[in-house]
Each structure stands twice: as C-alpha cells, then as structure tokens.
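The protein record filed here:
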Amino acid sequence: MSTIMHLKKWRCLIMLLFVTFSCLAVQAQVKVTGKVISKKTNLALQDVAVLEKGGKNGTETAQDGSFTIEVKSLNSTLVFTSLGFTTFELKLNGKSTVGVSLEEDLKGIDDVVIIGYQNSTRRTTSASIASVKGKDIENTPYATFDQMLQGRVAGLNVLSVSAEPGAAGIVNIRGNSSVANSSGTGTATGVSAPLYVIDGVVFDVSDIRTAYGNSNPLAVLNPNDIESVDVLRDASAAAIYGARAANGVIIVKTIRPKNGKPQFRLSSYVGVTTRPAFKPVIIGAEERRLKMDILRRQASYTQQRDLSQFLTDSLNPAFNNATDFQDLFFQDALLSNIDFSVAGSSQNMSYRFSLNSYDEKGVQSGFGIKRITPRLFVSMKPSKNVEITSETFMSFIKEQRGDGTGNVTPFNIQTFPSSFWQIDDVTRRNFAGKNDQVRDDARTTSINGNLRLTWKLLENVTFVSSLSYNLGFTRRDYLRHRSVVANNRTDAILNEANQSRYEIENYATWTKSFGTNQDHNLSVLVGQGAEEQIVKSTNATANGIPFDAIQMIQGVPAGPNLTVSTTYEDRARVSYFSRASYDYK
C-alpha cells in the first residue's frame, strides 16, 4: 500500500513540473506587434532593427514600418536602431502592441568643415566632404599623415610603393586622371596627387623638391599637431582652387590653443617594425648535398668530372659557408617619437609651441629617417574687430638610403648567390649600409608659414589678407666609394636645390540671414590671389676622386670627368575667385 502511495506522489510531482514548464514555455512565446515611424516626417521606416534587450530575439520592420517579435515577457525592453536615427529603447510594461517614433541623428551634421576660404557645417554645405579627426590618427607610427588616411575616407586611395621610412606613396581621390608617357617616365607617371592646404599654406607635392627623388614632402608636418583633415572630393574643390584642385583637395587644420591657463603636454612612444617573413631556403651542407645529388642523377660522367671546385671542395673555407642572404638585408627596426607642446590663451592673445622628434629605422638595413619639427602659432587681437595671426612651422630632416646606389638589394629573388659563397667584411658592410668609406649626407630643411589679418569691417562683412610662404633647402653630398661599385672608381656627387614660394591672398566675405525666422542664409565671397615660385638647383659630378681622404668634389681637373649643371625655374600666377552659397534653415 505504501509503495502505491509513493508512486502516486511521484506522479503528482512529475505532472506539476510538466505544467510549470509548459507555463514557462507559453510565457516565452509572447508576441509583440507595432509600427515604427519617423518623428520628423511621420512616415513609416523600413529595415529598422528591433531587438529584445538582453536576449537573442530580433527582427526588422517591413516596408510599412510594421514588425512582429517574440519576447520572453511583456516586461521586456525593445531596442530600435537604424542608420541615421538615434537608438531608442522602449519598455513594454505589459503592452503587446506599441508605436515608436525615431528621431534623426544630427550628430556630425553640425560639425564645422573647411571648404576652401570659408568654414561651414555639414548641414549647410552641398560639397562632398569627408573628415578625419586628429585624435583618430594621433600616435600612429607613420612618418607622414597621408599614410594614416588609408581606410578612413571613402574614395581616397593610399598606396605604399616602398617600405623605406619617409618614402612618398601614391594618394589619389576618385582614381587617377593622368596617364604615363610612352616610356612610363617623366612627370606624367599615371599618378594624380591631390592639392594639400595646411593652415592656408598650399602644398603642391609635385612642385616641392626633396633630397631623394622618392622622399615625401609632407614629412614637414608633425601628424600629432593635426586637429582635423577635410577631404574635398568633388568638383566644388576646383571651383575655388582652380586647376590645381583637379585631383581633389586635402585641407589640414592644426591644433589651436584652448582658453585658460597654459597647458603643457609631453608624450612619447617606442615601437618595433618586424621584418617580413623570409622565403624558406636550403643553405650550407644541405644545399651542397642537394645539388650534388641532382648532378649525380642527371649529369653525364664527363660533366661530373668537370664540376667546379666551388661545388665539390667542401673542405675549402672559401666555399664552406652557410649564409642566408636574407638575414643580411632585413632586420627588426626601432622607431621612436617624442612630442612636447605648451599652449595658452587669453581674451586678446593665444599661443602654442610644439616640438617633435621622430626617428625610424628601416626593416631594410641602412635605411632610415630622422626628423625634428618645431612649430609656433601666435594670435593677437589689438582691437575688437581685428585679429592678427602668425604661424610658422619648420622641419629638419636627415635621410639614409642604404649604400646610396639606389639599389634596395643587389639581388632579386632569382639571383641570390649560393649560401656557401664566402662574403668579406667590406661586402657585408655594404649590404648593411654601414660602409664608412661611403658618405651620403642628405638633408632637407623647410620653413613654412602664414601671416594673416582678419578685419571685421561691418557687422556682416569680414576682410582677410594673408601672406604664405614655403622655403625649402635640400642638399645631398654623396661619395660613391669604389668598394660599392664594380668599376673600381670613386665618384663624388652634389645635388642641391633652393626653392621659394610666396602667395598673397585678399578676400572679403559677406553673410546675411533674413526671413521671418531668419531661416534664409546667404553668403558671398570674392577675392584675389597672386603667387610666385622660384627654384634654383645645382648638380655636379666628379668621376675618379684620387684619394680616399677627399670626400667632396675636389682633385678632379676640368674635363670630361667633371660636369656641372644649373637650372632656374620661375613661375607666377594671378587669380580671381568668388563663391556664393545659400541655405534654408
């Protein structure tokens, strides 16, 4: 009897648990329906993501904005997300039918962007502009800021064509618009570089001379001084900058001081650039064994009898080495960066001074770049309607490019010599770019600045006059010692270029808001500009320097072994420009 009673208790318990779980299952299948509309237009919103907060249930709204979702309970919270609208959370509170209105996400619409000679907001400009904040690229381990823009701006392509530190890459907006000439050389190389404008100073990288042909002129700017980068991607850029902007414009604005007490900042980072993965190779005794085995199987008896001693004499120290030539050319390289700045601002004056030191070694032995870039910004307001701004930034760059011959390595992947070939110390130093008898001193000094007067003539009229300048001095003294060339001759080479560019601009801006609620806004800009650029260069070569103690162009008599050439370039431009814009609300 007791056994029967015990079984009945277990049966009742099982039935109770079944009912409980059935209720929970039913409770987990609660359906919620609703509709999502735009709060501004009252129109239905399609493809709005609807998720249960803390759960895995989700759906999307249909074309008419309706949706159906299953939730755990009517006390759950629904999360609504859609591109261009703010995320909205709704607690059901027992409701199974809901209506949701989403607000437009105005974040970024009121951001100030630079569209040439004016500042505007995304809300009111019709130009195609993409912006990158300075904090997004701060402390990125690159020598130049253009490499940091890769992947951050739609339509902007940045391609690194060399692993050399400080080398110029390919930057284009919306693709190339030029083609190479028949030989693939010259100025028309199929690359269309944009126009750079840094705090009102124009940088046309195709006109700027550097110590090496592949050096990047943008190395003059410390990337950590950048506040924002605006990329003008459509034809409106050419409307204000002319034909120079046919390939787009990249406008850089540097950091300005903030109000309050002086701010001091010191930052630094150190990194390592790892060498590339090596190609697996067979070296030393294993290489000799493999080659001899192939010859024994495939060569005739006569051919085997006449084999070179280089291959057969494994006891000769000159032929008994195990060198992986990849180790001679590539290394793990260090880079370091130090930034210091001090800034302050008051009602009538503001200033900011920054100093940057950047040092990067190349993964290719013997390559590297060292850069020091001081920068000074000063702004004064002698009166309520007048502001005078001065900005000066300089750079001192020293580069190293291996043994100076222009060859990254003396071999390609097909012509690497045998691993058991003996390498002397001179050849080993040449491969590492450490031959003390080679003198390759390449330096670039750049001074750039802008002096600007802003005068508010009337309530709605502002006049701006600015003078910008680029002064560049490049010099490369190169002694190509006979130990790095096959002709056993020492040559001395000098390449020097001095460049100066001045540009003056004057323009006035008139702005007016009118209408019942000041909803109509009109802006008109008219201006005039003039520019002159002068480049002087000297190139000299002396073949057959007689003594190792001479490391410059000396000791070579006049004749075919001594050549000198000079060039002089002068270019001027006068322009007139205007811009008008209108927006409603």
User: Anything to note?
Assistant: The two ends are 89 Å apart (CA to CA). The first strand starts at residue 30 and ends at 38. The chain has eight helices and 26 strands. The longest helix spans residues 2-27.
